[in-house]
Amino acid sequence: MCIRDSNITPIFNVNFLTSILFTIILGFIYYVHKKFNSILTDKNKSYFSIVNVVIPLLFVVSIYFTFSNEINCYFSQKFASSLLKEKSVDGYFTSNYNYDINNEKTIWNFCYTMLFLSIISFVNLKKIKSSKLGILNILLNAFISLIFLIGGLFALSELRDTYITQSLSKFYNRDLFNILIRYVSYLFFGILMYSNFVYSKSEIIKRNLTVVFDIFLITSLLWIMSSELLNIFDLMKVTGSYKLWLSILWGIFSLTLIGVGIIQKKKHIRVMAISIFIITLLKLFLYDIIDLSTIAKTIAFISLGVLLLIISFLYNKYKEILFNDKI
Q1: Residue-wise over 35-55: b if at least 16 C-beta within 10 A, else e?
Q2: Nearest-angstrom CA–CA distance, 175 and 198
Q3: How far apart are CA 248 and CA 242, in angstroms?
Q4: Are 193 and 146 in contact (CB under 8 A)?
């Protein structure tokens, strides 16, 4: 636990050293248990078998929170020290905090968590090779990925907004890092997704997860690409046409998926592509055209019409392959 008003040096503090000591003790306990496990009787082994699960789990959790607490403590102190009080004309004081620091803390926590889970994934894949740990790992990876797509991208959009508006910039620095941190987080997200990809191909998990991984990957890519399009539009200060360009982006994305599905002979990818295209058409007719000008409507219909013609051409050209392959 970090006290906001205290001044704790990151890493070199009693909380961190205590956590490290606790982790080392857990590791030593597990080492002794494994070393002398062979001399236990069958009766004792039944009692101590739970140690094989509980101690390693506590060890991993302890390592995670040791460094996670340092991240939270650092940013909590930084946020507390950002307090500024201004005396207004009527004599009252107004308080300001640099709320970018909270968003930065959120992003760095996501980056750390995604890196930590990725390391656990590769350690399990290369050394431990546990099916149960693999399944738990995949579920945690997917959960953190989903939370990042919801909460992480929102925090990134908040940082972008303060960079664009330069709100309270006379007190706090609003520099390009508010934008660049987005791509740092994408790197860690990509590493986590790659670990799930390796899991989907691994024999450790005794079931075929390729379809599930492809669906999750496609959904994540479309989500991030849509967010990135909005990010670029906001940076360029383009307003009013993002709905149209989102529809065009989704249409191009679905066309690309059709090509990937044909090349890799994966029916589920083609089904997802058609589903995305149908959703795009519904979005266009039921939502987009309400506020679009005549020129914008013409561009949208022509663009999606061309995409639809290309998809139809590809399906006709490769219909013998498409309707004879297996998922």
Answers
A1: eeeeeeeeeeeeeeeeeeeeb
A2: 37
A3: 10
A4: no
Q: Which residues pair with residue 93 across a beta bridge?
A: 87
Count of residues in the chain: 327
Asked if residues 86 and 97 have their Cβ atoms less than 8 Å apart, the reply is: no
Q: How far apart are CA 53 and CA 38, in angstroms?
A: 17
Phi, psi of 84 (to 5 degrees): -130, 135
Predicted TM-score of the model (pTM): 0.85
C-beta of residue 163 within 8 angstroms of C-beta of residue 174: yes
The answer to whether 10 and 74 have CB atoms below 8 angstroms apart is yes
Alpha carbons 197 and 202: distance in angstroms, whole number: 9
How many Cβ atoms sit within 10 Å of the Cβ of residue 7?
Answer: 9
pLDDT in tens, 4-29: 445 777 777 888 888 899 889 988 88
Give exposure, 199-214, as e/b (b: 16+ Cβ within 10 Å). bbebebbeeebeeebb
DSSP code for 214: H
d(CA 45, CA 27): 19
Tens of pLDDT along 114-172? Answer: 999 999 999 999 998 888 889 999 999 999 999 999 999 999 999 999 999 888 878 88
CA pair distance 120, 114, nearest whole angstrom: 10
**What is the rounded distance in angstroms from the CA atom of residue 174 to the CA atom of residue 158?**
12
Residue 300, CA atoms < 13 Å, CB-side half-sphere: 25
What residues have CB less than 8 Å from 79, skipping those under 6 apart? 4, 97, 98, 101, 102, 105
Distance CA 192, CA 180 (A): 19
Asked if residue 227 lies in contact with residue 153, where contact means CB atoms within 8 angstroms, the answer is yes
- Would you say 77 and 98 are in contact if contact means Cβ atoms under 8 Å apart? no
